[in-house]
Amino acid sequence: MSLRTEQCLQSESPSNPIETATLVNSIILDAVDMGASDVHIEPWAERIGVRVRVNGVLQELAYLPLEFRDRIVGRFKVMANLASHLHGVPQDGKATLDAEFGGAEMRVSIFPTVLGEKVVLRLFSSKTRSYDLRALGLDEETFTIYQGILNKPGGLILLTGPTGSGKTTAIYASISYLLEKHGPTMSISSVEDPVEVNLQMVNQAQLNPAMEFTYPIALRSLMRQDPQVIMIGEIRDVDTAQIAVQAGMTGHLVISTIHSGSTGGVFARLINMEIEPFLLASSIIAVLGVRLVRGNCQHCLEQYSPDPLAMRMVPEDIVETTTFCHGAGCDQCHHTGYTGRTALTELLSVTEEIREAVISKRPTRAIQALAVQNGMKTLFDIGLAKAIAGQTTLEEVMKVVASDQL
Asked: Is 147 found in the same domain as 178?
């Protein structure tokens, strides 16, 4: 159990009951100090489970008496300006925390279960927030290519990866780069659901489906706002995809995210959404695949022998000449061997060959192979390089890119 929450519970007595606000603050402070991205407060049969996601992995924080369930949920509803009298329906809100929480922002999601309402918090801490383009994990050559793509006057740039893979960080880093280079001379607008980070000099809009303010409606109106760069939180439907493609073809630089199994699979995903291949070939200028892996704790780094199944994917010459390292586990990393996360990225820059392959509806593997022939470094290439350098483990790399290697 974490220190603040433990002390808070131990201090309770009949003459000194715990204040709900104090207990909630203790949970949030512990989570912020641990660098957690999410907090799960779950009603179970006999107690309340509190778990935090650190470096992408859930771990236990505390177990609370069941008597606190309704009071804790009520407190979070008040903090996020939600309807505290409503029960049994999902609710979502946002709260900006006081300075004592390190300037963290909090997104609150309430979900009804058969045992009561579950609370999940998404934390955005200024201590760990960084939107530096160099922190995306691009090697020097790929970084230079991506900079050139961002400096193009028009076209569609798509970021892809599973949930929690760092797409939001990558898209904000891209916008931050443009702001740093062009400052007030560039008009940048965004449509997001929700707005996770407030960016200066960016006109950010948040969807409101209850008022019929959806992606298509927002984007059609935004096109009359004289934007040079348009950021779309996510392409989810045909209408949004069509507007994004058209905007990319008419002199706007459009940056968005889309879910796809692989970087090359973005084209097939959009074709399945009934977007004409020739429009995709004309508008998309790059696809950036993003994944996150846990980084080795440098305080307890030691040599080790990776899992034989993972080693099978490593070229023989590297196996014979490389010594791999991992974190053995220490107090600094809470005995996990890992601390923080690092990004793996692959940049598919659309060339004439790839345009022809898209128009011909070539299979995803063929498009991916063409990109590699044209110099694209794959997620596995980048991950292997990081494992060789001792920044992460081979097992971590294979866990997030194994499907791309099959």
From this structure: yes
